[in-house]
């Protein structure tokens, strides 16, 4: 039934049937081919299923819509669909839907299409069997099929809704879409014919509460049962409360300060290393994240597959930094600027670094640029140093390295440092295309060593994911990439 | 009178054209490429370019503006670049919340402002006058977002009587309405007070007293109605201001209003929503003011005579 | 020296009278005193502030008020008192410059349209209607988005969005003054339009302008703070009160002082400006004279 | 029942302003007989309006304050009345018409309502009856009764003043105070209104206190005249007597200041100087700085009341025999310096 | 009073019209009036409020642009003067305003107000200006210590003296006095009237003296024009207007004035109704709606301003000869 809606929930609640989730951002669209933003993904995760299933700790299992798959060749995968899976509109899932989904994804130029751009075509064998043909061998292909952006859509429903599909999603997931009040809340209700069995809660209401503090307060007062992305300051306060359960987990996000490696003086590796040494990243991270982060020693968070955890890190050494600068010809430092968008954490880092760089004679102005022009202008290389983060959403090193460091990916594609290294280029391609995990690992470890040495970035931090629930909430297990699975979650 | 209303309604057309032009111009010069935002950071340049061409973003200003106007006149504001929904629908979804908040805010402001204004005018320089002005001024002096946070601390956390954020029930409306209402209250108090002081000095008030009317009747029947014109004006202006100016309050309380949508749209370069939204707010503002002008005529027969 | 000498040139006016009346308004004088103190601290911030506004101490984040840090420290371990003192400079500057921009542009437009009426008036006022119909905070946000943040742009944005207010006020007062006999008297002795506007009309329309200006400074400070809240404000580490408040809002539960003191600084300043503005309104308006 | 309707004794009214305390009315004595019309004449700031407002007890307070005095009306001291009692007298037994017809009617209420309001307040009439009476009153002052539902702005100045008269007379008051009722009107309209007032007064038997600065109006309308200067009545007599034999130097000066319609005077002989500063009145006789007969004594001693005869009172030391009188009736230098 | 009729007029007004466009239609404030003023004389203009007296004065001085007609001042056409020459015209023709409170800029000191014309015309050196201001102030009877005072510190009589001094600063030959005493009390009014008269004798001025008060006009004028609803209805010498008024309106006006004499019994003519609106003036004779002697023809045609005898012109059929043709 859909009579009860978001607006009717009382201020204080412990409603066993309805799980209320506080979320910082408004989803943009529930059409996976239209957007690939985190808030949307978090909802889509409950409505749709993917061919492959990824557990909360990013292990990819064969537990998805595909019952099994078989590697025919590095570029050919044969899949068998689970039988009897029904979409929320009652239709049964068939190969046709799969084919339709991936074709539409390409056609619409979906923001996440790059995930499967190796896919050339889907060949239907019968209703439950199809073969995926790749145009080149692509290591993380199977992993990518677990990403919510590659969820399988229902052809009929999509064609029927047309442009408005984003507000009328139909999936095979544990919850079906009920209502969306833009800017306020989004309601899902349990899909009783879910192929894994009905979900634990009858209803989920996502409430959009943009302010961190307000979200925390809503949890504290019991207006919501579960909140995502708790602010570090609030987390400390909440964790102290008895009726709140906090979840602090390692995430996939890397924070870094990039250098424009083609611009003086950052074209000199000594300058880049000197800055890495001049910064007290440890202290800054402690302040910026209130301790809810790990100081980065390399480009990949330890949770990412093939992360090189053996890198030594630069440490804080002002004297060496000065020496290096002198060696590079800047004994008295120089003037430069740090760009950032208005993300408070990045601004904080920038402010701290501004002070720390002063100690080695570098005068850095801070320039805050709005997000859209920030991306544009850093892509054009107008900057000196810039603050940015990267989420290796798939949990795979390819995602976490290729577009950031490969020389083909200059500018918009992701490499805003314009740093290039032939060997790294080669290693990244190797890692991307070699289906052999061991070979991939070797390539990525080496690549990370070089990146560390060459320092196109100042490596800053890997942010912890902070989530919290009321104590009566059962079954919540944070997903490393943030697409928390609510199938098993319920109010006790 | 009807002719006057008609003329005023027709006058809205150039104003709306002007509004669309201003907004279009500002957005035109705003850096940030919607095509790129749409396709995501990773889209190849060629695709971005193709989309730009398809969206007509490379056309000269005049052509783009002309196209926008042409479509807008047919009631088509385009689709949101972010959500792919028709921009008009996005706005219509958010509009009730905005209206609700603005109306409640104005109500709060009026309920606080007018009585205080009247009493402090009739007791000019009394202790009550002083204190109520201080009270009203504190309301206007507090930055909305700060006041909002403080109220949440008080009402949601300490007293636990009101929901801290959200939209839907009357209880949800209380704090946002108080937050914006108190900042408008001072303006209304001020206007009521000075308008009443002005009216109380008038000869006809002396005439009313000379008839032997009680002070209450003199104030309520004779003074207030005359003082109402400038008050109604500021109330109208405040309402207009609250329509789009409640951005910060909406943010604090996660209020799903147009203001917040607009800020997001501006920042995401969601041109259709920005243009449509500003047009909607401007139109509402103008209509409210038109309404105020018509109200004048009902309050003041002299003005009605002018419209004839 | 003949007594007329001074008077011939010095257009001293009834400001003395206004000042006398203002002096009797205790609330307004309190407001003026507070503004005076704030301006003073802003001017001599380097001398008065106990610390530099950018001096960080990463080991003392969000410390509560103590003897070393009278108002505590902020999220980067900077002395809040010092930042408030330096911030007065920024906030007042934003307020006054934004109002000046609005006043000069709006005032000129209002004066022209009030004085000449007719088509000039029509065109100017329709343009003002347009600007007025666009919610000013959104206009400011859009302008800052288009031209970037930073002190100068914020001031311009807040200024532009307030132009119609001043245009209307100046127009209204120009119209009422234009009708007065002394304008005709000036014309009768051969004064040019320019002389009439600059020597007679503008000086006489100062009263409502000054009042609105005073209140406008308050509004501009709040607007700039609002922009900071949205993240479109002035670059760090420049201590702008709104930005300080907004960055402290995450600490409101455990370290409320970080947001509270800058908030109080705004409240006190706006309050004082309002008191002064109200007082000026009373002092300048002879009809309100008791 | 005495034939004196209104008697003001030793009235003192002050306003405290930022410039200082204004002695608006000072030791004022005044009598008005039943059925009589008394003209109160004086220049701007003499205190005429204040006197009238004191009778009505509508002196704006603050800043105004009735310091001392008695105002006897129909055997009762009005100054001893509670405000509620006074309200019942206002608009009922005493009513008032104000100077400016353009501003003394409420612009947002119909004239009918404004008249009816006073009637229903003071008389036990149903709304219907009251409205009927309002229509009658309008007819009486020469306004078509069909215009009861019109608003003041739809009337001309003269008509508005008639509405004011209708309103004032609607409860058949004992005393009508008219504060410069025709000053704002054109002469031809003034003639109409004065004519109407005279007629109605006779019809209703109302006593009239007519405040004016126009001696011509007084001559036409009033039975007796009181001349006010700087807050006090300096001369009071029947109209014919005062016009024929003005005694106080100020009264004489007034007559000399007026250009005449039927006599040719090449030059006027104005009173020298200006009205005194009300916050800083001259000592002794308030008029002495402008008085052609003044001697040193005038600046030190205040003149007392002198009854020249039962109907003619004057406050001047000439008539106390302390100061030599004028050889020629008029003296006064023309062009005033400074 | 011995006006030299043989002299050429200093100011000659012909068919002057001044219309204003208002929301309700064209307001004919001054509708086709003609008159002459001769050097050294005072022409009084009387009429009720709104009849166009001030407008006449203002359009004669081109403070408003006349809608039609001619104004010739000292042989020069004023209505077509180019902008620059208007300034020179202003040196010869000045105005004193009715309201001494509104006609002085409240933000200027007395000396600055009086010296403003010098500043505009760039006359005199600094010291000369100061001297000249002192001179003017003593001329109008203002103590020199008031030079630094501001208008609000002065009473009405003194303010009006400042207005007079300003008008005289440029040594004009012709001054329009627009109700210069109507805002003043009688005793002050008499002082100012005397001043205005004395100045005329000393400086050889010509006045156009506007007032609604017939006794004032009579006192000060050589000739008097009576206006009604934008037209002159009667114009003659001061003597005749009181002894033998010919126009019914003039008669009514005279009879309406209360005379400060007890028992001054006159035959009173009380006019009915109000002055009609100058937007919709009555057809025919403008006075026909209120005229006690109205005839049928008055409602059809408007009588011309016709010379009934030397120095006396009247716009009324009753005063005209039978042969007179309506215009
Ligand atoms: N509300 C007030 N506050 C202060 N002073 C006042 C007030 N009302 C009157 N006065 C002063 O009291 C004195 C007498 O004023 P009042 O109005 O009684 O004079 P008036 O004879 O009626 O003059 P007018 O002819 O101008 O009406 C004046 O000096 C005036 O300035
Ligand atoms: N600038 C103007 N615009 C429109 N109408 C005007 C203007 N100036 C004067 N009038 C109108 O012209 C008519 C004549 O006005 P004018 O001021 O000349 O009259 P007046 O005889 O001087 O009256 P008063 O005695 O009141 O000064 C009036 O109806 C007035 O309303
Ligand atoms: Mg009075
Ligand atoms: Mg006039």
UniProtKB/TrEMBL annotation, chain B:
Gene3D superfamilies: MetI-like. Residues 95-296 form the ABC transmembrane type-1 domain. Signal peptide: none annotated. The chain crosses the membrane at residues 9-29, 101-122, 134-159, 171-188, 228-253, 273-299. It is a multi-pass membrane protein. Coiled coil: none annotated. PANTHER family: DIPEPTIDE TRANSPORT SYSTEM PERMEASE PROTEIN DPPB-RELATED (PTHR43163:SF6). NCBIfam families: Opp2B. This is Peptide ABC transporter. The lineage of its organism: Bacteria, Pseudomonadati, Spirochaetota, Spirochaetia, Spirochaetales.
From TrEMBL, chain C:
The keyword Transport applies. One of its GO terms (cellular component) is plasma membrane. Pfam families: BPD_transp_1 (PF00528), OppC_N (PF12911). Its main location: membrane. One of its GO terms (biological process) is transmembrane transport. It is found in: Cell membrane. Residues 88-277 form the ABC transmembrane type-1 domain. CDD domains: TM_PBP2. Keywords: Cell membrane, Membrane, Transmembrane, Transmembrane helix, Transport. This is Peptide ABC transporter permease. The lineage of its organism: Bacteria, Pseudomonadati, Spirochaetota, Spirochaetia, Spirochaetales.
UniProtKB/TrEMBL annotation, chain D:
It is a peripheral membrane protein. SUPFAM superfamilies: P-loop containing nucleoside triphosphate hydrolases. GO terms for biological process: peptide transport. The keyword Membrane applies. GO terms for cellular component: plasma membrane. Keywords: ATP-binding, Cell inner membrane, Cell membrane, Membrane, Nucleotide-binding, Translocase, Transport. InterPro entries: AAA+_ATPase (IPR003593), ABC_Ni/Peptide_Import (IPR050388), ABC_transporter-like_ATP-bd (IPR003439), ABC_transporter-like_CS (IPR017871), Oligopep_ABC_C (IPR013563), P-loop_NTPase (IPR027417). Pfam families: ABC_tran, oligo_HPY. Its main location: membrane. One of its GO terms (molecular function) is ATP binding. Residues 8-255 form the ABC transporter domain. It is found in: Cell inner membrane. Belongs to the ABC transporter superfamily. NCBIfam families: oligo_HPY. This is Dipeptide/oligopeptide/nickel ABC transporter ATP-binding protein.
UniProtKB/TrEMBL annotation, chain E:
Transmembrane segments: none annotated. Residues 11-254 form the ABC transporter domain. The keyword Nucleotide-binding applies. One of its GO terms (biological process) is peptide transport. It comes from the Bacteria. Pfam families: ABC_tran, oligo_HPY. SUPFAM superfamilies: P-loop containing nucleoside triphosphate hydrolases. InterPro entries: AAA+_ATPase (IPR003593), ABC_transp_ATP-bind (IPR050319), ABC_transporter-like_ATP-bd (IPR003439), Oligopep_ABC_C (IPR013563), P-loop_NTPase (IPR027417). Keywords: ATP-binding, Nucleotide-binding, Transport. One of its GO terms (molecular function) is ATP hydrolysis activity. Belongs to the ABC transporter superfamily. PANTHER family: D,D-DIPEPTIDE TRANSPORT ATP-BINDING PROTEIN DDPF-RELATED, TRANSPORT ATP-BINDING PROTEIN. This is Peptide ABC transporter ATP-binding protein. It comes from Alkalispirochaeta sphaeroplastigenens.
